[in-house]
Each structure stands twice: as structure tokens, then as C-alpha cells.
Design goal:
Distance between the termini of chain A: 55 Å
Helix content of chain A: 25-40%
Number of helices of chain A: 13
Largest interface: A-B, 32 and 31 residues
Oligomer: homotrimer
Structural class of chain A: alpha/beta
Strand content of chain A: 15-25%
Number of strands of chain A: 24
């Protein structure tokens, strides 16, 4: 699928103009969704390849400069003319591979921008433009740049149900969506009854989960929730991607639950929509690092928990760190390599920032110097913007802020315990205090070791260090922590940064989200993601539970039924 | 391999005419086997595709009618001219996929029919025509239609040996073969020493298994047993598909056993050949359902016990139900969607009849109304003949006979227990009373629930129901039963239908088959499929064990040596 | 990659002549390495295929002769003209497949010979020629023939590290390399820090392992050890195939260890280089058998311990038998099917000699008759040089020397125990006395059964036999032994052949190698391949530990630190 093809663009433009002209005056049309879950489709057609060559010419100016940047003298692959450029298939150049992902992203950006201009030209003045990203944090879409062509961001979020319904993935995707334009977003698709192509996902929700889902999105800043789809389709690929109505098109269990939710929203919607969310913690998402690590994976056994089809370790690590914050009931935004100023955040999480130019590392160092707190993992600072390993002592420009250097690292064949349970997690199970997959041989210069490997060889180097630099701190994880350990490390850092609250005392199945609504009032959402009733102690200012209009005093006990929630609006 | 190609047909015809002319007067040639294990070979050559298009034109008349039948408006794939038809590769239309399998079957039928006409034209008048199907119940051969071009049906039956030798697969294939023309059949190939392409199957039979195998086939209606092959081949692909003779071409253990069997047959063969078998139970085999379910599998974990290379759940379920009958020593025939009248059977088994037109469902309902007993599983009645899900409440036209309707279903992530062991199988092991993979949310209207899920959510719907309709009953399994549970359900239904006998009291390793020979006498085969001697009580009329000519009184004790048998001919 | 292409050869020759002319007078250039890890690259280009056809014409003279040799009448594939020859893809002829591997090897031989002639023509007179084989015992390189074009053999040996560092693979590869020209060899590449393409091999050595590695090679006859590579590469495929220096290019842990070793060698190198090694045991390596078995694997579950990417059973078996000798501290050479005289060895190991002409089997028989001892496994003698199974009773021409014949064999679905623990290994663990994968049904004629299967069916035939023939013995393993059992069988045979010594009393982690240096003195290397200090009793004539110049008396206790060694030079 080559979305650059002039022939394709010619017919697509004709179709777009006709459709928009035909519907723009229909009063039920409030906005336009461009395309559907657009990606690069791994296109490498001749015109795409020539486009890449011209892009390289503009970027590197001479073949010699490109050869140097990509270390092509290795195995004698220097380019002497631009026509020497090999195609993407089978290249062994990590520089080429990374640059090709950027080119693929640029093509997606250009295609959606082209559509947005067309639609804007034809659409009604009050109609908004969006596109359904189809799962945020894709490796071939530069989502933050695409967002610039839209009026509002939208995502299709498909998630686990039944015993796997816990709100974490919805929150991750929502946090990312909200961060793209620093504001509210739409959910253009989410689970109706089932989402199976075949047998993978035919798990309809338990009673209550459909309704709880809507509020889960609203609590993270969504302004709309749509289903894929309303009625089930009677044939073809998505026969079992069932909508709210079954194939019989009659009312049913799901219809009843959606109907109940809709009637609630009719009443309390104005209190919920347009929620403003402020977070003190940010996670740095580096698409380049995700891509570059996928070409040189650090860990063969990293849990493939990620939705990105990425078993290579980057996205999985990001998800682990976001999940730890979610478990701690600490809200998070995402920031990007292009973000110039992190100072609005008190804590910056930096997972495996394998690819970065010197400037970004400098900005992170400055952030620490000026009082910021950073939690950073292994691989950060290792390679430059061309995927070349830096030829100075690792972690390169981060060395001063990190307070150590290293020359070696090792895969870990087996998980290792840490000496003496430094983060007090051993009560959480026999493997809670374990690390695995990767170990950098950190040689502290100013940093303080926080944890050591319990091993005759690896025990010579610390596993986790912390460095005070300027008025901030940089905590560094030289290895892949267990989930429990990651949560404990983040909890300790949050305490140090003064970011703890009563929210960390909630039972595990309860999650809370906060925001300010259009009336200027603070909202507190308490979700019970479990099949049993839970009582919690409400710890904020007195207010009203919007769902049943009951008054909630400070320190009152809130009873939350299974797969249900309370929404307290402060008085 | 395109067996439609005119060039191929031209040369094939020349060769066939020459071969038949050359050998037809050879007195050792008693019949002709057409081709070898013919299939569609997944051919999709241009001529095959154009043939498909013309077939669609005849069947649907207009592109619009086809678009409607296949719901092609979904994802904008309507056909406006026949030339719009995409090729088979990568279509997402379930209607297309199913129709293509029918076209593939028609091509096989046509090719074999063409050969049969040619050979009949050239062969001697007393010579019969057959073809070796190469494993019955294939998905790309319409075996019941092909049988119309033959004088007698033949199958190549390869099966487990050593500790996996139990007669069940031979009986399944034989039952199916016999049902194609309601009569005797040939075994054109079966295991000699080993059947391994490589290392998969080099397991020569234990002493006795080769001989027992011959009688196993005869007891199910075979009139001939041939080996692949006589002598082992010294090179190439089938070097280790060893015949009766080893590569040394000398007499050996297998030769001795075949020789013994042949001498026995010389004596008692006339008592065994042409066996007439009458069964009261039939299993409905729907090739369309097998194919359509394979495009939309209901279960990711269904045991791939099937010989058809089908991990998708249909054939596996058929085999489970046949195996349960085999374990209960109840003989079974197969019937087909084209079968117009089921009334000669007292019990009809209907596994996952996912694809059916209304008429077939009507015939099944009428059968129940008129006193028939039906055991039916989930998915039955769900989609029509074009693989479109019916747009009325499931199970569509079966609703009245089944006595329930349903709107929802779920994959089961884990096996579930049934509440209270309703079929008394829990003594058979900790998982005997489990169900898995799939659960339909049955809402009884007239049906009586027989079993419930032990689960807070799924427990709201019954797992198994039974409905009295007219003078018959329809038992419905809304979930995939454990093997033990399936056997218990069938045993209970057989009792209700008055189909039990002393045969259900035999020890597990002993299996019995009955029939009437050409002398009009009843035969009872008792097989010991184990390595230890077993004594059983003979419960039929007095007779003679043909193998040792000993008299067998009613209620006599029969001693059957390991991997051996008794054949009692009633006096 | 077609290294036969005339265009490729034209440019390659021009480049080779220029490079050699340019560097030949550089005094630091002491020799030339041809190409890099040359293989056949599975090339099947038209010119390669035509070359194969012409080779067949020369070898078989007529298509009819080839058809007979390859049994092509099977499935009607006889050749009538040479133009009928199908291409390699998808052939089902085992004769074709085997001959193609020979042709692939001949192409590699020819290509390297062509290079050697070119370089010799241009190089300086004192410069040697070698090539880095890149892992010995490849299936597509006839290493013993290629060696004829070289001045000295060289290998790239990559091995396990950290807890997998035990010297066994280095010794296997070294033994093979030394056997190619019966003399010293070079190690052109071995592990620096890490060898990972991606995440598979990033395991830097423990302290001491890098140094011990150098001596491990020298002790087996290496005259040089080089690293791949000196400095780590900053980009591309081998970014994490780290050299001695890290990407920072500064001194580090590995550099310090290499430096220490180099300074030691500066002092004691003249005592170590040019070691002469004499062994009494030889292993027959049959590349043809490895290839032919890969096309007809005997065992689906044979442990894939082999470096050759061969899960098919031959190389794995060779490695098991070499490893057993290594564990017993018995040195071994390799011999080849072309070896005319085995009489310099007292014990000949013959693993699965599936492919052989009659002459080789005759030479082995004669060797036994004249007093040699042979340990031989299943499959030996089964097929002839064209991969056709012999059409006489197995094991064909070996029958008299082996003292048995057989007609049948079976895969073993489960491991079997041997009756009565005939080799006293049961104390070594519950599965020590097990055999698996394969069982030949041996019918002894003169041979003495040494072990029987503990099984009602297989128990009729012996698992291991021994035959006295002339003045020697042939021990035959009709099944795949456990590692422990293989070691016990070899130990018993070594005792019988008078080949035991105090070396068999060493602790498991200690390995010893012997040789005579250029000063005519005997060297004894004692390696400690473990992380703990070990004391051993020195049992040879008094000498000096070259590493610390300490005197070592006969029966002295030698203390060997973790991952360290002693080198005793006899006085």
C-alpha cells in the first residue's frame, strides 16, 4: 500500500472532495475523521525509495557525509554516489534502518496533512478534523507531529475484558493521547461485545465493565466514547468483532448497559466533559529508541506485554514504568525528545533512551541540575541520533549528571537477586527482589550505589545508583527490575520528590483519577476494577457523588460495588 | 498443480488410454484405481480463477446479488461487474472463502469423473473402478459426490502403532468410507512396517498388530486390505515408508505375520467378506462447516487430535463424538447435509453445524418432532449457506426444536467446572467434569437445563439443555465438553433412546463390531487392543469362533490374547 | 552469492592482485588469509546448476546410469536426456540431494584454490597462506581437501562464556583443525568481549576466562590466537560483537587480561608454540553421513547441542562422543572417509556412518581383524555412496565384523532403561542408564549382547553388542545412549584397549592436555574450568610450572586457582 502514489492520491482526492461536499451540510455531521488507523504499511515501492534517497540528499548533502555518519566503511559499504544507495531490504546498517523509520513516519505525517488540508477546504466551518490513531505509541507514526494537523486527537483503544479488565491500558493510551496536544481527546473506537478476528478475543465484558469503561476514559480526559461498532456484522473478517447489538439486532445485555450509561451522561455529562488534568510526573517516549532497540534488542526474554508488537524491550519497559505509576495512583503525562522544557514536572522518567542527540541529554542534565528528579534506565545515552554508539565512555554526555561511567555490560542468563533487599520488597514474594535480562557494569564516580547484585562476578558493580547533581537527583537502573521492584523504586523516588498522597494507601483494585471540570470544581474518580465490593476512605474535601447525588464528607467511607465507581465533585 | 489445464488433460488422456489398453486383458488386473489421493492442490491458476468467476455468474446471476449474499458492502468491496472479482489470495470475505472451497471440491469431482469415463470406455467389462481417497473427511474433496463416479470406494488409512494402536481411527475412517455408498469398501493402502517421511513415524507394529489390523478393517465393512507397500524402497522420499519386506527383500517378522493372516483368510475369508452393517446412530458431517469454522475458529486451544490438519475445532469435535461412541461400542454411520431423510436412525449427532441452509435445519427439526433424538453442539444453525450469520435470534430456525435462544457467547479463557457433577463423571478424575473453549449464553424458552457453569458470571446460563419437541428430544451442548463428559452425555442419551446393550459393559481395551455375512449369519468381532490377555463374557447367541473353530456358548467366557481377537459367527 | 560467476571472478582477481601487490612488501604482513568463512551460500544460480549437470555427466556418463544409481524409476522420475535433470529445489531424490552437497563442496574448494594460486603468484616468498574456516565441521565445505591449498589451517572459534566456559568446544574444533594437515594451526578469530548479533551472546567473560582461552588453544596445537576484534565497532550489524576494547577505545578489564597474557607469552611462548600431539584414538567424520542423515533424520528429539545448526542427529552424536573422550581426558584426532589406514590408532570411533562405499566398510573391517578396536553406532553401513539403502541384510559389508544382522528398527517414543544397569551408571542419576530416539532390532550371529532394553517388545533385541573379529573388537550401539552411558561405554572400551591413565582420575572441572614442545620436552597443561580453586595430584615426571617457574615433583599437589591453569614442562 503506497499512499504516496500519484495515481492513488488523484483518485483519493476526488473521492474525499465528493464525500465532504455531499455530507458537509448534514446537521448530524459534527466533524471529520481522516482515514483509518493510518500507518506506513511498510511500503518500500520504488517511488518511496527514491523519496528516501532525496530526503537523505537533503539531510546529509554528500554521500561521504552519510557514509561517515552511518559508519559504512565497515564491511566496505561506503557510498560514492547517491545511486549506490541500497534498498531497505537486507541492509545491515543500523543507521540506515533508523533513518528509514523516520522517513516512514514522515510519509504518514505528509499523507494525513494532505488529507486535513483537503477536508478543511471542503468542510463546514464548525466541523472539526481528527484521525483515529488506532493504538497510540506506534513505531511508524510520529503521533505528536501528526497531531499538529488535527483539531483534536482521537484513539481507538482495545483492551482486555473479563478477568483482564483493570483500566491500566486505557489509562496508558489516554495519558499518551492527552499529551499530544495537552488537552482533551476522543475515543473513536473501543470494545463493544468482542474484538476477535478469530478466537483471540471473543470475551464479552462482565456486567458493569462496559459502563465503567466509559468513565475510565472520561476520567483521563476523553470527551467522547464511540464503539466499534453499533451492530454486529453478518459476514467477513469482522463477523466476531461484535458491536453493542448482536447479529439479531435486538436489545440485549450490552445495549441495556450502554443505555443506562447514556442516560447517566445525559444528566451528569456537563460535570465530566472537558476535564483538565495536571500531573507532576512525565515519561519520556522516544520512538527512535524503540525502533533502534528493535534492531539491536537488549533482551531476548523481556516480557512481551506490549501492545506494540514489540518484544524487543523498549515499549515493554515503558509500559512497566507507567503501570508502576498507575498502581501507585500517580498520574503521568508523556513528553517527547522534541520537548524543550521539562521544568513543569517534578519527576521525569526516562526509559532506555538509547537514541538521542547531545542536546537532549544536555537538557536532561540541566533539568536535574535545576532541581528536577530523574529515574532513568540502562541504555540511555548510549547511541547518537544516527544510531552510532558514542565513542566516549558511556553514558556519554550524561556522565556528570549520572555520576558514573561504564565500559561493559552483559546479558543476564538467569535472574539475579539483589543483596539484602534494599527496597524492602522481599515480603511480596520470592522473586520480588530480582533483576534480569541486562546488567551494565556501573563504575560510580559521584553516584551512590543503592543496590548490588548478589553474584560472585556481577556483584562487583552496583545495580542501581543515585546521584545528586546540582539541586536535583538522577536515579539510574543499570538492569531490568522486577515489576515489584520497579514500583518500590518509583515509590521511594516519589517520596523524595514530595509527590505522595493518600492515594498510595488505596487497595490494589481501586484506582483514582483527579481533574478539574468546566465548572472549576475538582473531580475525584474512584474505580473498583474487581468483582467484589470494596470500601475505601475518602480523603479529599467534602463533595457529592455525582452518580447517586449522595453527599460525601471528608474521611467518609465510600462503598464501591463490583465493576463500578464513584465520582466525587468537591463542593 | 492445475488438473484443469487443457494441456495437462491432453497428455493425461493419451497416457490413460495407452495404459488401460495395454493392461486391460491381463487376467491379474481386476480393477482400476483412478489417480492417487487426488486433491485440489490449492490451485488458483488463472484458468481456475476464471472458472470460479463463471461458476459464480451461473450461481448468483448478477454481481449485485453476490455482493448482497456476501455482505460485500462491508469495507466497500461491492462488485459492480464480474471483472471486479478479486482473486482468492487475501480476500477477507468469509462468503468468498467458503464458496471457493466448494469450487475446489467441484474441480476434484470433475477431474475424477473425467478419468472414470475414460477408463470405463477402455477397460474390460468386469473390471471395477475406484480411487484411493487418501484419508477420508478431507476439506477439499466432496467425497460423497465423487463416490458417484466409482464402482466402489477405497481409502488409504494410516494410523498409530505400538502403544497408539487402538482401532479407533481405522473405525472412524471405515465408518465414513462405508457411508459414502452405503456398502463395502476397499483399503488400498495401510501401514506396512513404518510410515515415516523422516523421523515422525518410524514405529513398526508390535507383534499381532499387523494381523489385528486386517480384521479391524473387515469388521467395519472392508472387502480388501492392501499395503503401502510390499517391498521397501531403496532411495528417495519414501525410503523409510517401509513395506512388508525390508530393504533386504528377505522374509522377516512382518512377512511372517502377513503370511499367517493370509492363510487364515484363505480359509475363513468367505465368512467375512461383504459384511452388512446396520447402525442406529448417525453423525452429520458438514464439510462446509469444517471449512467455514476454519476461517473463523471458535477455539484457540481445541486439541488438534484430528488427522485433517484442522486445529480449528470442527473435525476435532467430530472425532471426539465418534470416539465416545467407539468407546461405548456403539456403531455409527455418517450422514451428510444432502441427506434428505434421517428417519432410519434413532439418534442423530450434529456437531457444530455452523453452515446450513434453512431447509436442513428444518429437516433436523422435523426429525425431532417425529420422534428422533438429536445431540447437537454449539455453533449449529449460526450461519447460512453463504457463511453469513443469520440476522434473527440464534439458533435461527432451530429455535423451536432447541427450546432456547441466545444473543451472546464467549471464549473460555480457562476450563470451567460444572455445578454438582450432573453426569456423574467426577470419579473419573479431577478434570472429568470440565468444559472449555466456548460458552454460549443460552436463554431457555422451553428447554430444560441439564448442567450449569460453576462461575459467578457464566453461571447465569446453562451449559447443556434438553428440549422435548414433538415426540423426540434435542440435547444441546453450548460448550466444549471434556472427553469423559461427552461420553457420559452420549451414554445417557443412548439409554433414553433405547440403544444400550451388553456391549457397554466390555472392558475399555476391548471393542466389538457386529454385522451379517453373505451366508446371512451374524458375526461378532471382539478385539483386544492391548498388550495383555483379557477375558470377556460373550453375550450373544451361541456360535463358533471362526479363528480356531471353537464353539462359543451364550454367556461363555472368551479369552482374547494380547493384540488379538475372536470372531464369533452365530450358529 | 555465486562465487563461480565469471564477472565476479574478473573483478575479484583484479582486486586480489592489487591488494597483494600493494601490501606484500610491508614487513608487518606475515601471511595472507584468503576470503572469509567461505561457504557455498546455497548458490543454485543457472551457471551453478549447469556446472552440476556437467559434473554428473562426467561422473555417471549416461542418464540411465544416474537414474539407476538414484532409483529414479520411483515415482517415474527417470532421466532420458541430461536436459531432463530437474533443479535442486523440491527434488525428492536423496541421491540428488547428497550429490548436490558434494558439488557445493567442490565449488568452495575450487574457489579457495583459485585464490590461493593468485595470492601465491603475487605474495612475498616468506608469506604463508591460510583461510579462516569459520567453524570447522561445516556441511558445505570439504575442509580436508581445502586444506591442501593452504600452508596452514586456521579456524574462527566462538564459544560459550561465563558459566558455559568449559573448553570442550574449543578442544573439539582444535582437534579437528589439527587433524586436517596433521599439524599446528591458527585461531584467526575468537571471543573478545561479546559475540552477539543481537541479544543472543552478550556475555563477556568472567575474570580469567580470556587468558585461559589462549592456553586452551595452545594446548591443542594452536600457534596463534587472534580476536574478532581489537576495538568495538560503533554501528551496524556487529555493534555488539565487541572487541577487546569497548566503544570508548580506552583500556579496560579485558585489555588488562589480554595484556597480562601477552606478557606471559613473551616469556614462555617458545616453550609452548609448535606443540606436537600424539593420540591413540580417532573419530571418523563423515560429511556425507551428516548431509544424508539431514535429509532423512533418524531422531526428532536428538539434542541440538551442535554448532552446525544440525538438529538431525549426526553432528550431535559426534559431539557427544568427542565430549565423552574430553571428559575422560583422552585426546582424539579426526580421520576421514578418505583415510586409507587407521592402523596408527588403537581405537576408532565410528558415529552413524550412514553413507559409505563398500571399500571404506572393508577398511574398517580389516582394521578390526588386524587388532583394532572400534566403537560404532547405529545407521553405520546402511546406505551406499549414492544414499541408496543397501539391498542386502544390514549392516551390509560390516555384517561379519559386527557379528549381527538386522531387518528392522524403530524410533523410540520414550526413553527406555537398560536391563540391570550393565555399565554401572545408575548411581549417576535416575536417567543415566537410558537410551532413546532409535533402536535397531539387532539379531546377533557371533556378537555378544552387552545390554538389553527393559521393555516387553524391544527387549527381544540387544541394545549394545560386542564382537571379537580377528584380533580386534567391534562394539556396536544400536541405540542413542545417554551422555553418561556413552562415557561409561567408552571408558570400558579404553580399558580393554589399554588406553587408560591417571588422567581419568582428575576431578570433573579439570582437563589435561599433553604434547611435546620444540625443545623435545613433554608439556602437561592442567586447566581449571570452574570458579573455585582445585587441588590435583600431579602424576607425571618431575618438571617446572612454566607460569610461575615453580618446581613440580612427581605426585606433588598442584593448586589451580579459579579459571586458571598450570603448565608443567618435564625436566
Amino acid at each position: 500500500m503506497d499512499t504516496d502514489s500519484p495515481a492513488y492520491r488523484f483518485y483519493a482526492e476526488r473521492l474525499i472532495r465528493h464525500i465532504v461536499a455531499h455530507y458537509k451540510d448534514n446537521p448530524t455531521v459534527i466533524g471529520w475523521q481522516l482515514d483509518n488507523e493510518t500507518g506506513s504499511y511498510d511500503a518500500a515501492n520504488p517511488d518511496v525509495f527514491i523519496g528516501f534517497q532525496h530526503y537523505l540528499e537533503r539531510k546529509f548533502v554528500t554521500p561521504e557525509a552519510l557514509s561517515r555518519a552511518w559508519f559504512l566503511n565497515y564491511w566496505g559499504e561506503n557510498l560514492h554516489t547517491w545511486e549506490d544507495l541500497p534498498t531497505r531490504d537486507g541492509t545491515i546498517s543500523t543507521g540506515y534502518k533508523l533513518e528509514w523509520t523516520r522517513w516512514s513516519q514522515m510519509r504518514v505525517t505528509d499523507f494525513l496533512h494532505w488529507q486535513s488540508v483537503l477536508v478543511r477546504e471542503c468542510a463546514g466551518p464548525s466541523q472539526f478534523i481528527t484521525t483515529d490513531y488506532g493504538g497510540m505509541m506506534k513505531r511508524d507514526v510520529n503521533e505528536e507531529v501528526v497531531a499538529g494537523s488535527l483539531d483534536i486527537v482521537a484513539d481507538n483503544i482495545y483492551h482486555g475484558t473479563q478477568d483482564h479488565y483493570d483500566g491500566s491500558f486505557q489509562t496508558l493510551q489516554s495519558d499518551f493521547s492527552r499529551s499530544l496536544r495537552h488537552g482533551n481527546f476522543l475515543v473513536t473506537e473501543t470494545n463493544g461485545q468482542t474484538i476477535g478476528w478469530t478466537s483471540g478475543g471473543q470475551y464479552p465484558p462482565y456486567d458493569g465493565q462496559l459502563r465503567e469503561d466509559v468513565y475510565t476514559y472520561l476520567a483521563s480526559g476523553a470527551n467522547m466514547v464511540e464503539y466499534w461498532h453499533w451492530a454486529s456484522i453478518h459476514g467477513n473478517q469482522e463477523t466476531y468483532w461484535k458491536g453493542i447489538l448482536s447479529h439479531d439486532l435486538e436489545p440485549n445485555r450490552e445495549y441495556a448497559e450502554v443505555s443506562r450509561t447514556a442516560h447517566e451522561l445525559q444528566k451528569i455529562g456537563p460535570h465530566l466533559v472537558g476535564l483538565k488534568i495536571h500531573n507532576d510526573v512525565a515519561i519520556l517516549w522516544s520512538r527512535d529508541s524503540a525502533n533502534a532497540i528493535s534492531f539491536m534488542p537488549y533482551g531476548g526474554g523481556v516480557p512481551a506485554r506490549s501492545w506494540t508488537g514489540d518484544p524487543d524491550g523498549y515499549a515493554s519497559l515503558v509500559q512497566q514504568m507507567h503501570h508502576a505509576l498507575y498502581d501507585l495512583n500517580v498520574g503521568a503525562d508523556f513528553v517527547f525528545p522534541e520537548t524543550l522544557d521539562f521544568s513543569q514536572y517534578k519527576l521525569l522518567i526516562v526509559p532506555a533512551l538509547y537514541i538521542s542527540d547531545d542536546a537532549l541529554l544536555q537538557r536532561i542534565s540541566e533539568y536535574v541540575k535545576n532541581g528536577g528528579h530523574v529515574v532513568m534506565t540502562f541504555k540511555s545515552g548510549f547511541a547518537n541520533q544516527d544510531s552510532a554508539v558514542r565513542w566516549v565512555r558511556a553514558p556519554g554526555p550524561l556522565r556528570e549528571a549520572a555520576g558514573f561511567s561504564y565500559q561493559e555490560f552483559s546479558s543476564l542468563e538467569h535472574p539475579l537477586a539483589l543483596k539484602g533487599d534494599p527496597f524492602n520488597v522481599s515480603s511480596a514474594g520470592p522473586n520480588a527482589s530480582q533483576v534480569q535480562f541486562w546488567a551494565e557494569f556501573l563504575m560510580p564516580e559521584h553516584a551512590k550505589p543503592l543496590a548490588w547484585y548478589d553474584h560472585p562476578f556481577f556483584g562487583k558493580w552496583p545495580a542501581i545508583t543515585e546521584n545528586s547533581f546540582g539541586s536535583g537527583t538522577l536515579l539510574y537502573e543499570g538492569t531490568y527490575l522486577s515489576d515489584k521492584l520497579q514500583t518500590a523504586v518509583l515509590r521511594a523516588t516519589l517520596e523524595k520528590a514530595g509527590l505522595t498522597s493518600p492515594d498510595q494507601q488505596l487497595p490494589p483494585a481501586v484506582h483514582v483519577q483527579h481533574g478539574v471540570n468546566r465548572l472549576g470544581k475538582r473531580l475525584h474518580y474512584y474505580f473498583n476494577y474487581s468483582g467484589v465490593e470494596i470500601k475505601i476512605s475518602y480523603r479529599y474535601a467534602a463533595g457529592t457523588n455525582l452518580l447517586d447525588t449522595s453527599a460525601v464528607a471528608k474521611a467518609a467511607t465510600l462503598t464501591i460495588p463490583p465493576w463500578d465507581l464513584a465520582i466525587v465533585e468537591e463542593n
